[in-house]
Task: structure prediction
Amino acid sequence: MLELYFNLVINKKRTCDDTNKDITLVPVTYRAEVINLLAKRGYDLDGNKI
Result:
């Protein structure tokens, strides 16, 4: 599920940024892990390359 939500964020279908009201948030149960994976792979909370 972690990779699924990671890929959804990268493809702009989900977000981990709670200030972004345009896209559905990743569920809170996976959010911290997805945020860590995004940072590790060089992405911000919206899935944009840093």
Remarks:
- The chain has a mean pLDDT of 97.
- Residues 2-40 form one domain.
- Residues 28-40 form the longest helix (13 residues).
- DSSP finds two helices and no strands in the chain.
